[in-house]
Amino acid sequence: MMNHSSKSRCKVNPGTVITGKWHSNKYTILKELGYGANGIVYLARFKNTQVALKMSDNGMSITSEVNVLRSFAKVQGSTLGPSLLDVDDWTSNRGQISFYAMEYIQGPDLLTFIQTKGKSWTTVLFLQLLKDLNKLHDNGWVFGDLKPENLIVTGPTPRIRCIDVGGTTLKGRAIKEFTEFYDRGYWGLGTRKADPAYDLFAVAMIMINTAYPKRFNKTTGGLSQLREAIRRQKDLLPIEKVIVKALQGQYGSALQMRTELMSLFIDKESHDPLSKSAAASNKSTIQKQKFSTSGMQQQPKTRQIYRRKKKKSGWMETLIITIFLAFMYSLYVFQKLL
């Protein structure tokens, strides 16, 4: 949280016009979107467009965040953070305030989206997040303050985006901002040094958070409490292996975690049609057994019985092929979403 005096200096009312000292762009404040340790973010109107405008009396903090957004822009194909639109200063009656304007990302936060649209979207969104985090890490940055409140799902094709880069830190430095529940230092499972594993720990905690929307308090702490929380939720059991490895810092990169998560997802999906085929096969076996014990097994096979069996066999073959094709199509759609 930012201190009271800093927040007061950046506090403005809706309708206030912010005019840039250097670029002369005018922004009309619409409402406050939120505030953190280093400033306040407003929804503003620039010409006919809505933008997010962050103001701070800490010029160094603004410069650091602007550098992060510029770094995001250099990462081809990454959509993790908002686009940077303008950087300037505003001379107010309380002194000079630094600000930057960025793309306004609209949509529900991650947990709200999952609760509304269903948990079937969970794995897809985490695969997207890990893909973008890997690009961020390769570019020398660690996100730091990674939490559901900072993750927005946009549409119409669901895409996870971030709305706050205030905690993003260069690799090797101390994490600038963190939220205790997602911080490995808080749980006694690592330091607050900026490295990829710090972000992956937070991703694992967000996965746990999807099953505990109101979170939970730290008691014994450490891996034992978190493993117990995982095992109490059936939705987390299929990905327990990935979560625990991330909590223990066993992944060297977001790409490794993503690959293993995708493998678990594909294995789970592939077992569904196989189980249906097995069930159909078992049903056929049971029917055969009933026929053989009905007292008719001594009679010679008639043409009618032969045709019936042939028809049933053809139906089973068609069912298996249909299930297989449906599975392959679902994988295709899944890959397109990523």
Task: Please name the defining characteristics of this protein.
two-stranded antiparallel ribbon; elongated; six-stranded antiparallel beta sheet; Transferase(Phosphotransferase), domain 1; alpha+beta; single chain
What is the count of distinct domains? Answer: 3
The CATH class label of the largest domain is Mainly Alpha
Order of helices and strands: HEEEEHEEHHEEEEHHHHH
CATH structural architecture of the largest domain: Orthogonal Bundle
Gross geometry: elongated
**Low-pLDDT runs:** 274-302
**CA distance, first residue to last residue:** 35 Å
**Rg for CA atoms:** 27 Å
**Count of alpha and pi helical runs:** 9
If you average the pLDDT, what whole number results? 83
CATH level 4 superfamily of the largest domain: Transferase(Phosphotransferase) domain 1
What share of the residues does DSSP label as strand, in percent? 15-25%
Helicity level: 40-55%
Looking across the biggest beta sheet, what order are the strands in?
1-2-3-4-6-5
Largest sheet: 6 strands, antiparallel
Structure classification: alpha+beta
